[in-house]
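@here heads up, posting the sequence + SMILES for the fe (ii) ion run so it's all in one place. Ping me if the SMILES looks off, I pulled it from an old spreadsheet.
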Amino acid sequence: MVTCWYHGYTYGLNDGELKTILAAPEDPLIGNASIKTYPVVEKYSIIWVFVGDADYAPIPPLESDLPPQESKDYAYYSPNLTDDDAIVLGIRRKGESNWRLAVENGFDPGHVLIHWKSPLVYAHDLAVPLGFKPTSDEAVKAFEDADGPKGMMNMYPPDADGHSNYEPIFENAMLGVRASGGTPTLGIRTSMWLPGVLKVENFPFPGITAHEMYVPIDDKSYEYWELLVKTAPTEAERERFTDQYENYLRDAVFHDFNDDDLWARDSMQPFYEHDVGFAEEKLCAMDAVIVAWRKLVARHARGIQTPPMELGIKRRR
Ligand SMILES: [Fe+2]
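bot reply: prediction finished. Complex structure tokens:
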């Protein structure tokens, strides 16, 4: 049970029913009031909450809402969140935009240029291009197996035969702009999975996977989760990665690099508010994956939730 510190209302954690009131144990309200509860599962170092509709049934398995496990045989294997020996470290904060803008920003091939002056890029001389141009229909891959996770992947790494489906753009001659950095990051691959889970393989370095999750609070804000995943079978390796995370990666990846994304999404909110932006936006070839994602969502979304009532304000009809 959980008891409110203010008036002592005490609710059951399993069913949300009012079990007692601390200072009024005989009150007739007891047993006649309840609060909403959510299904919860603790797995992969995280407590997951199913925030779908209250009457949604059956509750889908957690794994159907997470990126599928990549085989360790894959040439550019990057740790899976679901690996037995994975260590998962991260933060949560709030973004001030519609969560859909956050999702689309996460794997947008045309926004990479906002990161090119990031300290992370300088520290490691990373070859971060200005953007990525799709050069074949294979550049974007959809995952739609009936029982599996639904997602959309940017096929940045070359195929097994060496053929590339995306061309990194490093220069704009008219503007005299060239991306800095020299070391290509092998195996970077981004993918987005319903209901809004980003996977960035081999980022910031080979052997680390970055995840982001965007959970709508309402239509103008979302919970922004940022995670780094690494395979660390021994205690010494876990300690070493934790040390590297706490003293460097947390600031360099989340607060320098990802701050630029957070700022970009917040900046787009006024344009897209009231859905005007979705009518006025101008898409180009780099947005192929964004358009494909929107179609995928239209095919597989579990429904559209109404926004929560604002406290103290009656919902407009
Ligand atoms: Fe970004």
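MO: Residues 111, 115, 261 surround fe (ii) ion (CB under 6 Å).
MO: One more: The mean pLDDT is 92.
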